[in-house]
Amino acid sequence: MTELNIDKLISHFPLLQQVIALEEVVWFNPNVTTLERGLPYVGLGEQDIHDASLRLQRFAPYLAKAFPETHVTNGIIESELIDIPAMKLALETHYQQPIKGRLMMKKDSHLPISGSIKARGGIYEVLTHAEKLAIEAGLLCESDDYSKLLEPEFRNFFQQYSIAVGSTGNLGMSIGIMSAKLGFTVSVHMSADARAWKKSKLREHGVNVVEYQQDYGVAVEKGRKEAEQDPRCFFIDDENSQTLFLGYSVAGERLKQQFELQGIVVNEQHPLFVYLPCGVGGGPGGVAFGLKMAFGDHVHCIFAEPTHSPCMLLGVHSGLHDEIAVQDLGIDNLTAADGLAVGRASGFVGRAMERLLDGYYTLTDEHMYQLLSELNQAEGIQLEPSALAGMPGVIHVEQNSEYLARLQIDESTLANATHLVWATGGGMVPKEEMAAYLEKLSV
């Protein structure tokens, strides 16, 4: 990696002055292109998503029995899609800005098993690995009823193997809970910002939690090195995993089905804008890929990051991707949005998706806490701070006339738009922890 000349970088990209000053910024990507032109850079396609969907269907009978909370959906891990009209009014008041389209929320915050968006990718990668091992050992065929995985012989088999991951919290929760349930020995390497209650919950499930005083990047690196010492240890790489990415991508087709059931149309006259909180990028990147495959050029995906951890904005805007970290600009990567506390973005996701993502914006921790309180008051929905990052996206879109003109979206088309806030976590936050979040504004 070449040494960075920060002064030269700032002269080329003046927006970075505001980023360094920890100001809230908005950047709509001028290089965004059509799905047809952008897709070759991803290296994955419709068949890959279809294969992931089939794998999840194969595991559904097992999940329905292993996790009773998934029984109601027959073992399919999926979240609710809701309107949030009271929050729409609250946002209009907060920002003194009318919102012309429809405002909705995807409650990945309340996904079963681990209560966050990471239940999609994390659980999927563990299942993919377990299936591969069991098939190679002659214990499982794709035509089997996968509920047989509950039998003791499978638990005994998986106990010979281990799984490791580095995490700020939610990915570790999904991988730890799922791996332990199957019988794997699992270690979750957790960064300094990981919440104590998440560590406790993992330990309750028999997971080995390794704690670090450093940030996410160190936890990942240490986890990777430990896994390299053991040929039977599988390291789940949040920074580079196509399997994780595909687990998230299944959300696109499922959302399309939910829209059809609710009679929501997405086309040139009825655009869809989706606002996704972003940490390292795997979760929002995979979901955005699935959305683009499901809705084509009529969906516009926008990433939201904390002012103290704007790694994807920095990587894509500068074109340096994972060759630059926020710390290189003197930014501390300290945020209350623990799931988003990542200093260096995924090079895989940044390079794969940069032509298919419409924009990026940042917001302060205080801003997230304020929105957390407003959502609780308006809709009675409680999320963790990072999950509120997507909430101001609709305001940024409707205020940016240059961006809308580039999309050739006029006032009447905007009135037909659906704005979808992707709520990423909070469903398993303990009551006392949530009370502490809500009290932040009264200080």
Automatic annotation (TrEMBL):
Annotated protein name in UniProt: Probable D-serine dehydratase
Catalytic activity from the UniProt record: D-serine = pyruvate + NH4(+)
Source organism: Vibrio cyclitrophicus
Database matches in InterPro entries: D_Ser_am_lyase, Ser/Thr_Dehydratase, Ser/Thr_deHydtase_PyrdxlP-BS, TrpB-like_PALP, TrpB-like_PALP_sf
Family: Belongs to the serine/threonine dehydratase family. DsdA subfamily.
NCBIfam families: D_Ser_am_lyase, PRK02991.1
Keywords: Lyase, Pyridoxal phosphate
Enzyme class: lyase
Source organism, top-level taxon: Bacteria
Chain positions with N6-(pyridoxal phosphate)lysine modification: K118
Cofactor annotation: pyridoxal 5'-phosphate
Ranges for domain Tryptophan synthase beta chain-like PALP: 97-394
GO BP: any one term: isoleucine biosynthetic process
EC number: 4.3.1.18
MF-aspect GO terms: D-serine ammonia-lyase activity; hydro-lyase activity; pyridoxal phosphate binding
Listed transmembrane segments: none
